[in-house]
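hi! just following up on the protien thing from before. the input was this:
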Amino acid sequence: MKLLEININSKITLNNGVEMPLFGLGTYALRGEPGIQAVLWALEIGYRLIDTASFYDNETEIGKAIKRCDVPREELFITTKVWYTEQGYENTLKAFNRSLNRLDIEYVDLYLVHWPVAELRNQTWKALEEIAREGNAHAIGVSNHTIRDLEELLNISETIPTVNQFETSPFLYQKQLIEYCKNKRIAVEAYSPIRKGLKFSNKLIQELSNFYNKTPAQIFIRWGLQHQIIQIPKSGNKDHLYENANVFDFELKSEDMLRLDDINENYRIIDDPHLQKKRKEAELAELELKSILSEKMQKELKK
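and the predicted 3d structure came back as:
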């Protein structure tokens, strides 16, 4: 696929033969009627990939937008995910059915493990394989998985994830993980590709924005597309939805791609909630241990 030939309808072929749009809409925090309207605007503009998750608490809204729009279901690509608290074989099957009911559709195009939970990895993935075998998900994959997570998964299963969705941008250029995924024929999908606008004022971003007469958001998205990374920027604003989709009429020069590749700061917006919980539990356990030791010392001093 030549870079200048890509457009809003461009797709990549996943390792199981399913075609997936290269560009779509992230929907985190898009809820209620404004969330429904944002999805309808996006579909009107030409978006066809809609990414949601049980944790986003908006699958019902996505389902309503699907019902209200004029786009045939077979032209849409709907992704949802199982949250870390829902994992395990039976729990995942139940979580998937809840998602399907909320979306009010007969199948999803892609079902992802939202965050890795090592102790439940095997059972959760078996559930996804079962969901795929039954035709209820046309493709299965993972999200936020590191190389180590992927290696552990591949060691227990012959089913290679079709997609790994994770946070990446010029400021979080996870080159090793991207190359690993591509070598394993795992498509890379980026959430938060425009960094919530927090890096728009960067000197290089501003320079390229002026040179190409494009907004900083468009520079970020185009960088990802030229790396063949699926882009799902989120917005509930109609003008921004148009802006984010207006990235197919220019191409970043190879030297500018290299300059963007070189500004990595490991700048991460999202942290693993499962690890956050474990760290919090470890901190509380440490505090409890210190309290016990302190009490023992005080008793010893009183003797």
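The beta strands are 11-13, 19-21, 24-26, 49-51, 77-82, 110-113, 140-143, 163-167, 187-191, 230-231.
The chain is about 45% helix and 15% strand.
cheers
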